[in-house]
Design brief:
13 helices; alpha/beta; 9-stranded mixed beta sheet; two-stranded antiparallel sheet; 11 strands
Amino acid sequence: MSIKRKAFIVGAYEHPGRRLPDTSVPQIHAEVALGAVADAGLTLDDVDGLFTGRDTPGAGGLSLADYLGLRNLTYLDSTESGGASPLYHVGHAAAAIAMGKCSVALVTLAGKARSGAGGGAAPPEDPFELIFGARPPLASYALAARRHMYEFGTTSAQLAEVKVAASLHAQHNPNAFLRKRLTVDDVLNSPLVSDPLHRGDCCVVTDGGGAIVLVSPEIARDLPRRSVAVLGHGEAAKHSDGGKVDVTYTGAASAGPRAFAEAGVTPADIDYASLYDSFTIAVVEQLEDLGFCAKGEGGAFVQDGGLVAPFGKLPFNTDGGGLANNHPTNRGGITKIIEAVRQLREEANAPVQVPDCALALVSGIGGDLAARMRSAVLVLGRQDA
């Protein structure tokens, strides 16, 4: 069964806060949920499907359902896939709607990585891997970057181009955590934090969150807001393979083709991309794995404004992304989806709105690039695309 056009995103809301010391995590969940259902022209009483990850306090989605007063739930999904979780949730929500299990699905993410306690239970492999001194995720992504440089000649200056593009976009976002325009030299002159990655190659650490509302086609037709069609979805798991892991590619190499096939489009058809950007090397590898350029050519692709909106080869992360805008609770998937929705609704910040944006791709990563990770990819389309 395909989920193509079986569900539509009608509500999207990103919390404007990046430091929220006086707001609890459940409060943030509630504020983004209320924002998203209001954006859709609905209320919480309309919600019958709830999709959350481990950032939900208490007994998974059940505690949040209690906190929000959701009384009409017929479907509850607590799939945990790190930063990619919201992309999994959108795909699962679309499938549940297509099967008639629910008709109004709410996806939420919230947390306080900047001002509160972050993280969760330690994974079982930690005692066997941390003794070597390489603490993930920073060391893991640095290892992937160094290997990519060795295999393909990628340079630190090329990685810095990714951060520069993000900073150019973030200057137009009044809520962005970092709004300063950066140059390649600015990134290269920032402190080296894990060779070869500099501080400028790393995402921001923020509080906050966001929420998405998906509905059936019948409900979408009766709502006033411009909706966004879910056209394709793919998932993939990539693990350490007993220590023989190839760190030069991401799970998007498997998840991407599945999403493109379901949507019936190719990388050449995509007008805008939200790419997971916990670190600059992640963007370069996803560009290659998703087919926007050949393997090993990601560094050249991002040079000379290749990612800069509105007229770059592939405008990306026009809100500033995780590198400059927002990476709530160290999980950036929800903001990637929200910015793609803004682009397809023609509601992005004016200087970075992609003209006639009809098709958008969202790629999410959860886990460590050099060890074990999950990937999910969405292809979204304008209502009339």
